[in-house]
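Notebook p. 47: complex prediction with S-adenosylmethionine.
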Amino acid sequence: MEDLTETRDYANFDPYWYVEHFNATDEALIIMQTDLDNLHKIFTEYNIGGKRLLDVGTGPTIHSVISASRHVDEIFLSDYAPQNLEYLRKWLKKDISEPTKIIDYVISLEGCKMTAEERGNQVREKVRGILPIDVTSETPLGSAYDGGKFDVIISSYCIEAAVLDVTGYRRCIEHVSSLLNKGGVLINIGDLEGEYSQVGAYKFQGVSINKQEVQSAMAQAGYTIKLYSEFPVTVEEARYTDTNGYYIVVATK
Ligand SMILES: C[S@@+](CC[C@H](N)C(=O)[O-])C[C@H]1O[C@@H](n2cnc3c(N)ncnc32)[C@H](O)[C@@H]1O
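Predicted complex, structure tokens below:
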């Protein structure tokens, strides 16, 4: 990643590059497979569900809500970067051609007989909003937001990307938690002990965080951790990040 330009400016985040590299190819599926397996398992085996789900920092990819879509009534996608929100709006209106590898893989996990287009439409039917969000703000969805709280929140590779230190990470967990109903579930997926991730010609800097720091941030925000797991970085993913691994936490508020 040496030749890339270091940035913290999400105006430099290219949604088309991201989808091409993390959703569209055989390599992308290898990179995403562990998350897809985990999300499928969590929603089927842990009996997680509810009325309203918020995906925090969705980026331009809806892979994190495919499994969830069978277990909630309403899905809200969100992101900080306007170009990612625009990409998601185009996805919702079917104004862009959607790579099918990720959805086909989830269909294989679910053992259903649908096409990727049919399963993608099932997800679209649940989407009720595509919202601007800033997890560094005490009012992440904006001070004017009065749309209510959520029963399930998913955040995948967003919170460590949004800040540069552990204190900032803790605050973001608290901000996100303010959007979750009591008794609700937070599924938080992220990088362990890495600072950079490539998107296009840029490497985006975030906080390097370890297991103890993740768990204490969750405990401090009032969560009971139901599951904490770590996974190694694949050879394919190591091309795009300096992270040592990934964590996934499932916790109740
Ligand atoms: C590495 S991408 C992850 C996208 C997607 N969730 C995934 O799992 O592939 C990080 C995302 O976090 C978003 N982001 C960065 N800063 C943020 C902030 N302060 N609040 C909310 N989202 C932020 C970026 O715009 C980007 O879409």
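Notes: The domain at 5-252 is CATH 3.40.50.150 (Rossmann fold). Strands lie at 5-7, 50-56, 72-79, 127-132, 150-156, 180-192, 196-199, 202-205, 224-232, 245-252.
Next step: compare against the earlier run before touching the bench.
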